[in-house]
Amino acid sequence: MVKRLTIAMDGPAGSGKSTVARSIAKALDYVYLNSGSMYRAMTLFSIQEGINPTDEIRLIALAKRCQIEFSNNGQTTFLNGTDVSKQIRTPAIEEKIVAIARIPALRQEMVCQQRRIASEGGVVAEGRDTTTVVLPEADLKFYVTASVEERAKRRFQELQSKGIDCSEQQIAREIQERDTADQSREHSPLQMAEDAIVVDTTNLTIDEVIAFILTQIEQWSLC
Asked: Given 3.50.30.10, 3.40.190.10, 3.20.20.70, 3.40.50.300, which CATH number is that of 6-214?
């Protein structure tokens, strides 16, 4: 029987890692584990229970009762057995998720859940500390990155397509600020694992990136 691998991906915001991870999981028929969806589900749970985002003690206790699962290539998120995929993509979640996701002890509970989901393999996990903190023992690690200019260009085009007026220069400044914040935060900062395969997507199409990563996975499987 072919071993089902645990594959971890991280990298800076806007590098394309979410799109890549989702596509790789689909190609391999693996579970796509999106850490962001986990924190969204936890935020929803806190709202349902009427817990204030500043009440860390109750939130940490709640996290211990929070069971999160994924299906349908990670597109469907279950919270304690209920499909909450649509509910976690609302303004109410956006408003509270940052405060909740920054609680160290709560993050550790989410890490335990991610490790549980990944424990049997057949998973492509993606986040900003996945290869270094969440799954340091993953079979394969990829650090997906791109230049600030390219990431700003992609985000600019995305917003323009939605009719949102913005400045590419301003987006570039925001991305640089986000990078600095992610790399310097006290808990689980963005870092590149020493054994991660670097995938610079700056001058590559999404299909080229996916083909490269699938080749790396195939080569690893043959070793």
From this structure: 3.40.50.300
